[in-house]
Amino acid sequence: MKAYLFIKGFLFDNIMEYQLTHSEENYLKEIFHLSGVDAFRVSTNNLAARLNSKASSITDMLQKLAEKELVSYVKYKGCNLTDKGEGIAVQIIRKHRLWETFLVMKLNFGWEEVHDIAEQLEHIDSTKLIDSLDHFLDYPKFDPHGDPIPDKDGKITYRKAKIKLSETVVNSLVEIVSVNEDSASLLTYLEKNNLVLGICIRIIEKYEFDKSMRIALENGNELNLSKKVIENIGVKFISKT
Amino acid sequence: MKAYLFIKGFLFDNIMEYQLTHSEENYLKEIFHLSGVDAFRVSTNNLAARLNSKASSITDMLQKLAEKELVSYVKYKGCNLTDKGEGIAVQIIRKHRLWETFLVMKLNFGWEEVHDIAEQLEHIDSTKLIDSLDHFLDYPKFDPHGDPIPDKDGKITYRKAKIKLSETVVNSLVEIVSVNEDSASLLTYLEKNNLVLGICIRIIEKYEFDKSMRIALENGNELNLSKKVIENIGVKFISKT
DNA sequence: ATTAATTTTTAGTCTTGTCTAAAAATATGT
DNA sequence: ACATATTTTTAGACAAGACTAAAAATTAAT
Q1: Which residues in A lie closer than 8 A to residue B120 (C-beta atoms)?
Q2: Predicted pLDDT of residue A117
Q3: Which class for B195: exposed (0-12), middle (13-18), buried (19 or more C-beta within 10 A)?
Q4: Which CATH number among 1.20.1530.20, 1.10.10.10, 2.60.40.1930, 3.40.50.2300 corresponds to the domain B1-158?
């Protein structure tokens, strides 16, 4: 029996070619995150910082991934995912987000404690397992942080008009729809200040000198948020006055 | 905050010392299985066969594990788990069996397809995860193959008087309580012949020349089972005539 | 009790993924 | 445009975990 991999309308055979190591999978995932929706080129140093690694290690791995045609890599010019590479990255992200959803919905974890465990679970290799989990969870569209969960075929349902809180203008009324999941301390901080998914806030003032922002909650409470914080919150407009 | 490891009545601190690699964990688990309840010494070649590895690789790893005081190893004389090593092995087995139970009970997997996935999941490192899973599954005592699931403290509830089907005498009436989980093809074979957990069979005849056996099912059907098969089925006596 | 067969260990090599230090390419500032 | 700063790559090293081939210890057999 032959196995196939269906990516972006292309059918690749010999799926065994895509049995990657944890490390390789982490590289693909991080390149995907860094290159964003517009598929920016990702620089070696950027990747090194995100993967807690050194530039020289990144260069080595990029050459290896380029050899496998998972990234397009040009010396001194950074890298990009190929269609194959992106297809795999999306499947890893699917696994990560489904496991996070499982941990929160079924095992009663808090949304701020699931990231590290999902980092491990995302490397478990079984299509049947992940599709069964998807079914068990009733095909969720978004994970506990508000990020979209890619489906079996890698299709991602983006929420329309999601932008960073830091990009909003004064007086906007917005709903929090996602939080960058990387830092457990940030998540705890937000939880403590009641800045949870689905809540509405209004931007009161923006301070140029340190790029911070003052916002108001639904209950009237006001709060100052640093540059760091507002860059890690994704919002959707409710209305603009 | 300090973390502790409670093993067989001893309290070990500095749990970080026990962050083992997948490979190390697999060695401990396999030594545990091979040395059985009576803690037999396990030979290098035996381990090599079970781990699909070479004797020289085993020697290397045993020296490393002895260094960490997880096995007691004597040159040319094989190895044994220390209390620490056994405590860790039992926790890995706990994880393996809980995940198998999850796959069968919640994700509707067949009992014969869960072993390979559980081999991966057993290495996920999170005490909170596994304890939550245990709770979610309502603290099961036995896994889908009939093997006992160690509890949080490593205690194992053995079924009394479990022996191999091959060790029974003619005319015994026994209940199938476990099946050695290693071979998917064996499991499929048993399923096909309705030899599932909990079923009762009677031993009709034993053949010395090839160590095979003829048995009868509850519905009267008779069946010949090879040496290989009857050595991999665990049973409990119901009565002996 | 020696010799033969088997098991186990040692010694040396390989791959993966990482690192440091130094060299090369690119980007920046005046 | 040229010197300086930054980024990226190369070269060489290392640890983990496995392997092969050869040596040493143990076990079995006559």
Answers
A1: 124-126
A2: 97
A3: buried
A4: 1.10.10.10
